[in-house]
Task: inverse folding
């Protein structure tokens, strides 16, 4: 990156940016094929408004950076849930790079869920399960209090996201939420949600500037099982956040 200039990343930049992720000769073609599958499906199932010139940086590098930062606090998670996965960012990208992780993609829109399932099958990602459900419903099902890491990207404000994600997180697990320049203000407004959902702030880590100059990853640790009253029924958290 030149001083004062943002240079868009290309596919060949990813292995050097993420040397801790082994076997790039395996996962890089998977990520490129994933991008091609989304492009082929865009006419009937649109999952992103990111321009093609920015795709590698805004979708793939940022997704991998979420994983890199999370693994500084929680190495080798066994189970990860991605809430509102859309086109598979970051969950499907993480599944491609870290095959030992059992990844659950929550996507309530059925067309997108079918596309995610198709992508996982075509890429041979046997560690991926797609759930066409809302986070509030998943938080009262088999995934309740179950995941080592839960993430959600571009879904809602922080206090709402915590109600979506904390019920899916195991005690001692991490919630990893990428946020923009308003992260600190959102943190200040999320004190009640953190208390009620038995979570605490673990860290707020900025992404590296070659990936994003604005995004941070807010990390929270789950301290105890989810209280019986959470998550509230679908739609309530967004209308009446804690």
Result:
């Amino acid at each position: 990156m030149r001083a004062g200039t943002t240079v868009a990343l290309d596919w060949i930049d990813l292995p050097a940016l993420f040397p801790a992720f082994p076997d790039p000769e395996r996962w890089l073609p998977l990520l490129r094929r994933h991008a091609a599958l989304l492009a082929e499906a865009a006419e009937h199932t649109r999952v992103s408004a990111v321009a093609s010139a920015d795709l590698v940086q805004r979708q793939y590098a940022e997704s991998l950076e979420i994983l890199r930062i999370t693994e500084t606090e929680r190495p080798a998670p066994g189970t990860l849930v991605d809430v509102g996965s859309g086109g598979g960012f970051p969950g499907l990208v993480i599944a491609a790079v870290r095959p030992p992780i059992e990844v659950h993609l929550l996507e309530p829109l059925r067309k997108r869920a079918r596309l995610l399932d198709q992508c996982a099958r075509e890429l041979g990602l046997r560690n991926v399960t797609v759930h066409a459900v809302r986070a509030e419903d998943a938080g009262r099902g088999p995934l309740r209090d179950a995941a080592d890491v839960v993430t959600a990207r571009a879904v809602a404000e922080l206090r709402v996201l915590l109600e979506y994600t904390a019920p899916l997180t195991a005690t001692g697990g991490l919630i990893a939420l990428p946020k923009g320049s308003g992260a600190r203000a959102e943190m200040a407004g999320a004190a009640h949600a953190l208390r009620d959902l038995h979570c605490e702030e673990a860290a707020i880590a900025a992404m590296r500037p070659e990936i994003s100059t604005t995004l941070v990853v807010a990390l929270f640790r789950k301290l105890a099982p989810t209280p019986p009253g959470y998550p509230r029924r679908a739609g309530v958290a967004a209308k009446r956040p804690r």
Q: What stands out?
A: The mean pLDDT is 93.
